[in-house]
User: Which sequence fits this backbone?
């Protein structure tokens, strides 16, 4: 898959999903640094089958996760549970990945795996490194990485569930 | 007239969101039922009549394809319009779900008015 096409699809998808489903406006592209301590981020991984197959990793700072979860569910950010935040972040990952693949996959169809919350700080083999997009939100940062064209075994990835 | 709607999705967050945006959109809904998969949805439909079904595709237990297949095979239930809500916007998937009996298809992400318009179109609600 052409990296530029995938990058464009990723940007459009993230911006559109945040705007339409989370009523959130991005404050511009953010630098991709690894400075955020793992304990202050929620990470979700999602594997997909298609042409080509691949995986997506979505990382969101905890404060931003609470903010967008509250917006999505229409509740006060202070009253939202960690379980609700996790469910919404997984749904966000599902929507972004499905939107990207609908734009970029060359095959007639694709299949998304179940989004899985990853324990913070867990070192993973096959670290994602292909195409990424990072945006600043009012209360934090959202970063999405997609790797395609490789076979990655989801069973090797620890899940928080 | 207000309508009774069944939302079928394995994500509690998504069910809450759909219920919320239906209310935001101005669509007149009197009752809303929820199910986490096709099996639960069929259980709901044994005891509750609904005017429209909104269903996801990928769900554990019984997915949206099998659920639509079962609904279309039931003499009573097949008249209920079903709308698929999915991230999969490929023509192949839309055709596949339509062939199983879906009368509408909304791809995520969507605006509240998009869902309302699709509900009103499938229910034959007069414009304006």
Assistant:
């Amino acid at each position: 898959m052409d990296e530029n096409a995938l990058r464009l699809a990723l940007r459009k998808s993230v911006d559109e999903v945040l705007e339409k489903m989370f009523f959130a406006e991005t404050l511009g592209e953010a630098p991709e640094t690894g400075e955020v301590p793992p304990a202050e981020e929620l990470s979700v991984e999602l594997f997909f089958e298609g042409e080509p197959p691949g995986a997506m990793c979505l990382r969101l700072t905890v404060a931003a996760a609470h903010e967008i979860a509250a917006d999505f569910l229409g509740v006060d950010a202070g009253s939202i549970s960690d379980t609700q935040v996790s469910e919404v972040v997984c749904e966000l990952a599902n929507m972004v990945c499905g939107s990207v693949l609908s734009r970029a996959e060359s095959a007639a169809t694709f299949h998304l795996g179940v989004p899985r919350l990853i324990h913070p700080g867990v070192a993973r083999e096959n670290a994602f490194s292909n195409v990424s997009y990072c945006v600043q939100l009012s209360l934090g940062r959202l970063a999405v990485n997609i790797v395609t064209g490789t076979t990655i075994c989801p069973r090797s990835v620890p899940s928080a569930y | 007239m207000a309508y009774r709607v069944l939302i079928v999705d394995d994500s509690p967050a998504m069910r809450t969101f759909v219920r919320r945006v239906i209310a935001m959109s101005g669509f007149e809904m009197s009752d809303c039922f929820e199910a986490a998969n096709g099996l639960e949805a069929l259980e709901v439909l044994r005891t509750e009549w609904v005017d429209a079904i909104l269903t996801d595709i990928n769900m554990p237990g019984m997915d949206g394809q099998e659920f639509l297949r079962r609904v279309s095979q039931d003499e009573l239930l097949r008249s209920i319009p079903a709308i698929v809500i999915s991230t999969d916007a490929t023509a192949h998937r839309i055709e596949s779900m339509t062939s199983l009996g879906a009368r509408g298809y909304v791809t995520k992400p969507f605006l509240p008015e998009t869902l309302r318009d699709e509900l009103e179109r499938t229910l034959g609600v007069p414009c304006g």
